[in-house]
Amino acid sequence: MTTAADLGVPEVFNAAAWFVDRHVEEGRAAAVAIECGDERVTYGDLHERVNRVASALIARGIRPGDRVVLLLLDSPVFACAFFGAIKAGAVPVPVNTLWKADDYRYVLEDSAARVLIVSAELWPEVERIPLDALPAVQHVFVAGRDGSSRATGFDALMAEGRPSCAATAVRHDAPAFWLYSSGSTGRPKGCVHLQHDMVVCAELYAKRVLGITADDRCFSVAKLFFAYGLGNALYFPLAVGATSILWPSSPSAAHVIDVAARHRPTLFFSVPTGYAMLLAHDGPVDFSSVRLAVSAGEALPPAVYERFRARFGIDILDGIGSTEALHIFIANGPGAIRPGSSGRLVPGYEARIVDDEDRPVLDGEVGNLWVAGDSTCASYWNQPEKTARTLDGAWLRTGDKYWRDEDGYYWYAGRTDDMLKVGGQWVSPVEVENAVVEHPDVLECAVVAREDADGLTKPAAHVVLRPGTPPTDALAADLQRFVRERIAAHKRPRWVTFHETLPKTATGKLQRFRLRSDA
Ligand code: 3UK
């Protein structure tokens, strides 16, 4: 495992100094850090704004370790608030902008945040939070409009600050930011990430796998509140002095196509559903500027990879990451792609696949994936039992089933709780889904366990058809025949149901559990 120290991170290390100040010190103040619509933010501008936020927070009495909840759309304000808080030694906590007031109340309470910074567009949901019942929240700022009796304008906060500000001296293994990770059950858990974690991901994955340089232009369909988007569109480009393309609106295919045509990204990041939506979109798409595309969040079906490659001539590099690990730790690399696999270990990380007694399994056998790396979170805030169940020294139990082939490629086989046992044998829903999605009439598919008349578990397929394809019994039968021709007979779906959409989390992850008959 490569440690932050191996990468040259010193004992005393504030991440904001490395990701922001360093560029100004090294003469890159005039380079563009962020493009957002018609706005251009240079590294010099970013440095000054981060200083203003940091000094204003310190002047208002914010102390090292205090939490600052960010409820922000993707925009330069996000970058300034995130690194401004870190520079002051405080701990930004970006939260999902699609959540509801009750979720925000939970996070504000759980984190005991002293500061809340909100985009004007998201203010109506904040109005529903009983802030009076949250005495820890002492400072509320609203970005994108003037202040009011309930909130100070973010511009006013920056005006309170000073254009220069020294980074608060903190240790490299001090908390830097938290990200809430939602499980299939229970409230989300705050993953406590350290000052050096972003450096580790930028060095090991963005630089060494993607080969990111200052000439790159990063565009992420996944938003910044998601650990995946935070790397893609914030600390990856800022690690090397590259440009981030941010845009605040929703990730519809039409928006993505428009932003790509206008801003000409070289590195494009999305989730499998995003790629499927682009392929289903009629009309011209200009991706000629893109040198590499990345997919994560869930397994990329080989059929989507092949169609995208055939249509745009661009390789999609699938890789697995998690909020706990911060970013991608197993990945396909340029020129080393096995469609359908998550790729090989990112050098610097270690992995183990073990059985339920924690004994290593042989190559080719499915087991539980553990990963070790110096970017993994230190703990779940205030959750000692969940921390102990998930983190074991340097090791993180991912909750994923994987197998490894003899060439070291890792193949996703579902979540711990998604795997099906059929006739005593494991069936990976992903393998069945990939087979169904190869059918030309299919856009997306989710396979879940259903009990047959004998009470035995069998796979059921929930299918979204391509626009304009009528859902008929004949097509359902054809899909079953199609799958049977491709994979072992016991894996074939015994039922095929058609849907307009599939249930997904706010970050685009398929929620198979919601399709189960017992759900
Ligand atoms: C699943 C994948 C198969 C897997 C993430 C890149 O997704 C991210 O973080 P989350 O905490 O979810 C983690 C879980 O999602 N998963 C992610 N990628 C893949 N399954 N193939 C993949 N390529 O179950 C994992 O445990 O939301 C992704 C970077 C940072 C991230 N946080």
Structure description:
By secondary structure, the protein is an alpha/beta fold. Helix content is 28%, strand content 25%. α1 packs across α2 (43-59) and α2 crosses α6. It is globular and about 70 Å long. The model has no long low-confidence stretch (mean pLDDT 93). The structure holds 5'-O-[(S)-[(2-aminobenzoyl)oxy](hydroxy)phosphoryl]adenosine (3UK). The site of 5'-O-[(S)-[(2-aminobenzoyl)oxy](hydroxy)phosphoryl]adenosine has 22 residues, from α8, β14, β21 and β22.
Can you give me a brief rundown of this structure?
With 519 residues, the chain is of the alpha/beta class.
Structural class: alpha/beta
Strand content: 25-35%
Share of residues in helices:
25-40%
Bound molecules: 5'-O-[(S)-[(2-aminobenzoyl)oxy](hydroxy)phosphoryl]adenosine
- Give the termini distance in whole angstroms: 40 Å
Largest sheet: 9 strands, mixed
For the largest sheet, list the strands in their spatial order.
2-1-11-10-12-13-14-15-16
Number of helices: 14
Unreliable stretches (pLDDT < 50, length at least 5) are none
* Total beta strands: 27
Mean pLDDT: 93
| Cα-based radius of gyration, to the nearest Å | 23 Å
C-alpha geometry:
globular
